[in-house]
Write a structure and sequence with these properties.
This is Polysaccharide lyase 14 domain-containing protein. The protein is 8% helix and 40% strand. The protein is mainly β and 293 residues long. It is globular.
Length: 293
């Protein structure tokens, strides 16, 4: 895939270090099949301030990560939680609430590879049923000195069957809007929507540090069927980093937003993606928001 550089807005004063270091370079790497005119910087305030909180899933008090996920996130669709997830107490997160530590064992990449690393699960909160717009926030903390290698997946919003792994999003079967980390911690939106199959959007719009919590905030607004007017926005630590317009998520009104697609692993697949040693990342403070009107 050929990559182009797309200019973004100039950074404002007071940006946190994780964002400022990237924003000082006024270019974000961009896939060549994304229309540059559809990209920009969010002008709206963070979506958590404009939407109503409808769900705050968190690990249950179960003694192991697998049960903590199944009970706390009310999910029956999951992988890797029995081997690669442990529950963190509120004292371990330092956030006043529990979290999850996801392990990426040495030599692992995607869940389809020989040796499984990371974990995944899906939520479907009743409060989001039929939602055509939604907001997700959560916090991630990569272990100190985390080796980002070539990249890996991070959670995001989804609908329908949540296409991934090279599947085609056809407008009826669903969409997924995960994030990724890339080399040296560069961040991006990684989307499966109509005409975009696993597409990198806005790579380098921000940079993840290691050893500290980072707050991710994602808003998506579905398109009207037959129109290319969908929207995605991202904020990092409260600062705007990426807006994409003119997205086609769906071709039928029956496809709506279902919830959180928790998905994290190294890859891609293959030797060049695999983590060279045992590593982990922590996740906490999940919140889902629906529109106030």
């Amino acid at each position: 895939m050929i990559l182009d550089a797309t200019p973004l807005a100039r950074p404002s004063a007071g940006l946190p270090l994780a964002v400022l270091l990237t924003a000082l370079t006024p270019w974000a790497v961009q896939a060549d099949d994304i229309d540059e005119a559809s990209l920009g910087m969010p002008q709206a305030e963070v979506c958590s301030a404009r939407y109503i909180e409808v769900d705050s899933p968190r690990p249950s008090d179960a003694g192991n990560g697998h049960d903590a996920v199944r009970e706390g996130f009310d999910t029956r669709r999951h992988w890797g939680t029995d081997k690669n997830v442990e529950r963190l107490g509120a004292g371990q997160t330092g956030l006043g609430e529990p979290g999850l530590r996801v392990h990426y064992p040495e030599g692992t990449s995607s869940p389809g590879d020989d040796k499984e690393g990371g974990a995944g699960f899906y939520t479907e909160p009743a409060a989001l049923a039929g939602a055509e717009r939604a907001c997700l926030t959560y916090r991630v903390r990569f272990e100190p000195g985390f080796d980002f290698v070539k990249g890996g997946k991070l959670p995001g919003l989804y609908g329908g069957e949540a296409p991934s792994g090279g599947e085609t999003a056809d407008g009826e079967n669903g969409f997924s809007m995960r994030l990724m980390w890339r080399e040296q911690g560069q961040g991006e939106l990684y989307e499966y929507v109509v005409d975009q199959k696993g597409t990198s959007v806005g790579r380098g719009s921000w940079t993840f540090p290691s050893g500290q919590w980072v707050t991710i905030e994602q808003e998506i607004v579905l398109n009207d069927p037959g129109e290319a007017n969908g929207l995605a926005r991202l904020w990092i630590d409260g600062q705007p980093v990426l807006e994409q317009r003119d997205i086609v998520y769906r071709t039928t009104p029956e496809l709506t937003i279902d919830g959180l697609m928790f998905s994290t692993f190294f890859g891609g697949s293959g030797d060049e993606w695999r983590t060279p040693r045992d590593q982990y990342a922590d996740f906490a403070a999940f919140r889902l928001y629906g529109p106030s009107d």
